[in-house]
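I can't quite decide. Please look over this sequence plus structure tokens:

:::
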Amino acid sequence: MSSLFDRFFKGKTTLPTPDSKEAAASVPAPEQFDVVYAEALRAATAKDFERALPLYDQAIELDPARAEPYYKRANALRDIGHLEAALTSYDQAIERKPDYAFAYCNRGVVLHTLGSLDAALSSLDAALGLEPSDAFAHYNRALVLQDRHRWDEALASYDRAIEINPQFAAAQFNRSMVLLFQGDFKKGWPAFEWRWENAQRLSIGAPRNFAEPLWHGKESIAGKRLFLYSEQGLGDTVQFCRYATLCAELGATVILEVQPPLAGALTSLAGVSQLIAKGSPLPPFDYQCPLMSLPLAFNTTVDTIPAHRKYLASDAAKVALWSNRLGMRSRPRIGLVWSGNPNNAIDHRRSIRLADWITHLPSGLQYFCLQKDVREADQAALDSNPAILSYADDLLDFTDTAALCECMDIVVTVDTSVAHLSGALGLPTWLLLAYTPDWRWILGRNDTPWYPSVKLYQQKAAGDWTEVFSRVAADLRREFRR
């Protein structure tokens, strides 16, 4: 993960802030620079970058020796995604102020975003050499080290950031993911609760406020009504809904609220007394708990993950309909999923272009598109390859997706909700993972304790899907002797 933390100016000006270059020009020098620069800062604070950038340029023109306008301009360019231009502006700031720690820090963030990990680390080290107590620099250094798979060093940098600022929620949360990725669930799950302090950044919404108490796993829930609710993505809900069964085994009457697209697909989950779609009126209950806090409540370790081969079942009638529609099986059927939600923060790592994958698919097999949403560029590749059959328009909800998955011999997918669904159904699933995948897949494994039927194919080098495609192709040929 990468950070776009900003470093806005410290201190305030009391100078007038005119709205035009002409008004600024009426102010005697040297106050003219201060007026223009103050207005640029005001515009940037309001996220009005279209106005801020010309004002920064004007301030630089008025006083090209000052480092701060270059730095602020770089921050604005970074925030609108002009990363190369931002780097140039950070360099110009550092040229004028060689001890500009904040510029080195934010320069490191941009280099990290661009994938230049060594250069990013050098820039962040320079920042810390100048400002050792900068928690943000330690945090961003940890993110780079994490992507370099230098896990112990990353944890040390997170720890230093937290030592400087114990309420640094992003550092606390990202530290939890490194711990979980290493399989250290004892420390990881408690730290994972910091996600609620990162709710806006994670797009999980604000913590829900209930009069009923949060269940921590300590209170007896025998004879009690326990409300469990989804909080993050569809895949997260599929993965952690399994804990509803454990809650029922403790004697609770379990009410489970999930995202509307999943409501039909989760009706087979054992132990759920009432399944409701999010947004529906809530029945009365005694305790409540978000789904992703249940591993903490149950003190889950890698060895105690509730990992039945399958804990969901497809709609038998829909499976029969899809089976009839596909007709007689003449060749092995391989279901493909190559992209997920484009709004996911790490989508650029996990999703792939269909055109890049097609040439690596072995012949003699029958391929099916299992995703409902196909991006425009991928649709062109799909249309030009009729060997990949697509029923995207007929996948009305996840009950259809589950039934179609049941008709496959193997589901081959990137890290999306379909991977979780197929794994929860106990189907043979091959999961393609980035070099630095999501925390849940645990370090150094080609299997996963969460889903016994899932096999992992992780990149051996950052961004290198070709090698992954080759391994998958070889295993498909071996599996079906093609």
